[in-house]
Write a structure and sequence with these properties.
With 109 residues, the chain is mainly alpha-helical. 58% of the residues lie in helices and 7% in strands. A two-stranded parallel ribbon has the order 1-2.
Length: 109
């Protein structure tokens, strides 16, 4: 499902905000498209939402369970939503991450 299709589908429901887990580069496009479609989006650290699921005693991990857990997390915690970074900031961040990875792998100092 594309981000545009997801945005059209979500407009059929009374959605106040959307919670997504930070998945590196994979969540960024959805964040941008949903924000541009008028939705408030909160990007959460996967560790934080996993700890929340652990607190609930939810040990299984499937897409359906994750979606229910994120919805409950959103209702209970009400995380802050924010605008996605600009395209230039996204590119700069990617370059900095690549630089750090090369530096960490380099054995010649």
């Amino acid at each position: 499902m594309t981000s545009d299709t997801l945005a059209r589908l979500l407009k059929l429901y009374p959605v106040s905000s959307i919670i997504v887990e930070a998945t590196g580069r994979y969540h960024r496009l959805a964040h941008r498209h949903l924000f541009d479609a008028g939705f408030f989006v909160a990007v959460m650290n996967r560790y934080q939402t996993r700890r929340f699921a652990d607190m609930l005693g939810q040990l299984a991990k499937t897409d359906a369970i994750d979606a229910q857990t994120l919805a409950l997390f959103g209702e209970m915690v009400r995380p802050a939503t924010k605008e996605p970074p600009s395209p230039s900031m996204t590119k700069l961040t990617a370059l900095l991450v690549a630089r750090r990875q090369v530096k960490d792998q380099c054995w010649c100092y």
